[in-house]
């Protein structure tokens, strides 16, 4: 059967950095994210008698590395369903590839949902989240709706993500500012393994529960300035850990910093906006709905900025009827 | 009597960040620096019967803030000498002001030496270093020659700097890259007081003795790659602490990062060069003598770079015969 699913990218507000089990993608800390309304992956899959999996990503055959990762994930799902059929997979992102948006979260969430449905499996949201996590850690957060917590858990079976609030709970935006077409030199996977080499990593880990509960409280109370301050503090904390790893990881580009400094300046002038960054040069500017358009307009004028994409809180992974093939 | 002294700026290789006593400028950790051959302050002073101190810095009357700081320091010296004479002070830097080179180290070292000599005091190098420290902490390191350690000490009388190696011990360079004319928004004095608000500060402090002894060993053995790695690690460590302070301190400009990334890239291509930064956007590129000219030439081509100044290890503070008035 042919099935198509769509899944959002998500921005981590409390970050996932450091794994306790690299093969299971078990994290060292709980994390928290918001799904993004405008950045998503759509994946259509059909299992058939084929010699090998046929995988097309954004109109091209997958690279060897991407292919292996997808096939490994399909193997997990085939094992659950008890089939040896190969699959035709066609996947498209709403955003340009290779500009610093990690597409593995939305990609593996969409693949997990589409593939399980195509094989007739009806997994619960929790089961889908657990399974997506095996493909790419942060993909587990792209399964539930809106504002999502990924609990660190104690073992494979209880490290999954769930929705804490639906997308319409709070109308805040993530204005995503793309600043680079370069592929990052150090992948997130390699980065995770370097995290514990920072002398600051253990302090970071110990402090995360406090920051996570601060963030959840500010979210519940819709206290935007506290929320924003925690979000920005968390991002700088992770990047401070990265930059003190051995070897040091510097994910920022000059334009990254230009955008950050501009946001700080606009905040000094009264606009409530806060920055966060994942393991890459893309800047995410978190702001209230009223300010998003003005902010996006201003950020588009910055020399070196490639694109600015204004996002609301988004839905999680869902099945859709329009197939890609 | 009229006396003139010259004192070098210094680049901290193990940084001074955080004070245990702000009025005495007593540090929380030992630090280590290299004096710079091409960046210095020359100061001429004459004590006379005047209504008030007349202070000219780089051809202009000192600002109120600078003036107060200089007068407070002159008062310390007048007290030691037992005089109430006011002074005429004329001071000049070899480098442009307001482009991100802290001139307080060279400035207070030169002032301390010139003023004590003009009042007929003959202080030892240790006494001069202790006294210069009262004017500006890092000024104590601009008193001795070459490669200098400032010991954290236990009290006022034993927190001073001394020369570990003369300037000609090792022919390494500091290629100073000026990238901004903007005055930094947060002064070092304010920054020092924020240091303990970083969750990482205590870890940094505990780790400094290890890093300092690694650096001194690499210096003694003239092991440049170890030396450079420690220097760069230390700089990123301090900036990670700064960026996780409350509020966060980001001293980098976009061009700062551009220069850093270029140095990393040149290193990937085989050039041994390492970066360090003080509490400002200026990048100091530490390299071996053979590579300095090529590096400086390349860095001058970077858009946004204001000036590149190639320094050797420099002498400490000394009296000279050529007066500024």
TrEMBL record, chains A, B:
<keyword id="KW-0444">Lipid biosynthesis</keyword>
<keyword id="KW-0547">Nucleotide-binding</keyword>
<dbReference type="InterPro" id="IPR053859">
    <property type="entry name" value="MVD-like_N"/>
</dbReference>
<comment type="similarity">
    <text>Belongs to the diphosphomevalonate decarboxylase family.</text>
</comment>
<dbReference type="GO" id="GO:0019287">
    <property type="term" value="P:isopentenyl diphosphate biosynthetic process, mevalonate pathway"/>
</dbReference>
<dbReference type="InterPro" id="IPR005935">
    <property type="entry name" value="Mev_decarb"/>
</dbReference>
<dbReference type="InterPro" id="IPR036554">
    <property type="entry name" value="GHMP_kinase_C_sf"/>
</dbReference>
<keyword id="KW-0443">Lipid metabolism</keyword>
<dbReference type="InterPro" id="IPR014721">
    <property type="entry name" value="Ribsml_uS5_D2-typ_fold_subgr"/>
</dbReference>
<dbReference type="InterPro" id="IPR041431">
    <property type="entry name" value="Mvd1_C"/>
</dbReference>
<dbReference type="GO" id="GO:0005524">
    <property type="term" value="F:ATP binding"/>
</dbReference>
<keyword id="KW-0067">ATP-binding</keyword>
<feature type="domain" description="Diphosphomevalonate decarboxylase-like N-terminal">
    <location>
        <begin position="7"/>
        <end position="161"/>
    </location>
</feature>
<protein>
    <recommendedName>
        <fullName>diphosphomevalonate decarboxylase</fullName>
        <ecNumber>4.1.1.33</ecNumber>
    </recommendedName>
</protein>
<feature type="domain" description="Mvd1 C-terminal">
    <location>
        <begin position="175"/>
        <end position="301"/>
    </location>
</feature>
<dbReference type="InterPro" id="IPR029765">
    <property type="entry name" value="Mev_diP_decarb"/>
</dbReference>
<dbReference type="Pfam" id="PF18376">
    <property type="entry name" value="MDD_C"/>
</dbReference>
<dbReference type="InterPro" id="IPR020568">
    <property type="entry name" value="Ribosomal_Su5_D2-typ_SF"/>
</dbReference>
<dbReference type="Pfam" id="PF22700">
    <property type="entry name" value="MVD-like_N"/>
</dbReference>
<keyword id="KW-0456">Lyase</keyword>
<dbReference type="GO" id="GO:0004163">
    <property type="term" value="F:diphosphomevalonate decarboxylase activity"/>
</dbReference>
<dbReference type="GO" id="GO:0005829">
    <property type="term" value="C:cytosol"/>
</dbReference>
């Amino acid at each position: 059967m042919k099935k198509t699913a769509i899944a959002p990218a998500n921005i981590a507000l409390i970050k996932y950095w450091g794994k306790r089990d690299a093969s299971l993608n078990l994290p060292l800390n709980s994390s928290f994210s918001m799904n993004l309304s405008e950045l998503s992956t759509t994946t259509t899959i059909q299992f058939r008698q084929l010699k090998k999996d046929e995988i097309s990503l954004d109109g091209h055959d997958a690279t060897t590395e991407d292919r292996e990762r997808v096939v490994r994930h399909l193997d997990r799902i085939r094992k659950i369903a008890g089939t040896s059929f190969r699959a035709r997979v066609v996947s498209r992102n709403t955003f340009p590839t290779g500009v610093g948006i990690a597409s593995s979260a939305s990609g593996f969430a969409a693949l997990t949902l589409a593939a399980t449905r195509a094989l007739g499996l009806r997994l619960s949201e929790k089961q889908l989240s657990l399974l997506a996590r095996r493909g790419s850690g942060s993909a587990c957060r792209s399964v539930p709706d809106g504002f999502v917590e990924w609990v660190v858990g104690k073992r494979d079976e209880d490290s999954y993500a769930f929705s804490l609030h639906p997308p319409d709970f709070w109308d805040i935006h993530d204005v995503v500012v793309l600043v680079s077409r370069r592929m990052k030199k150090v992948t997130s996977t390699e980065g995770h393994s370097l995290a514990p080499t920072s002398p600051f990593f253990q302090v970071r880990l110990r402090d995360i529960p406090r920051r996570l509960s601060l963030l959840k409280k500010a979210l519940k109370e819709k206290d935007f300035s506290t929320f924003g301050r925690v979000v920005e503090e968390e991002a700088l904390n992770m990047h401070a850990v990265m930059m003190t790893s051995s070897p040091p990881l510097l994910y920022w580009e000059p334009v990254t910093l230009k955008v950050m400094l501009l946001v700080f300046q606009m905040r000094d002038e009264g606009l409530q906006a806060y920055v966060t960054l994942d393991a890459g040069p893309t800047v995410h500017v978190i702001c209230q709905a009223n300010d998003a358009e003005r902010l996006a307009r201003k950020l588009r004028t910055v020399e070196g900025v490639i694109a600015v994409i204004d996002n609301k809180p988004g839905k999680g992974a869902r099945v859709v009827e329009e197939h890609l093939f």
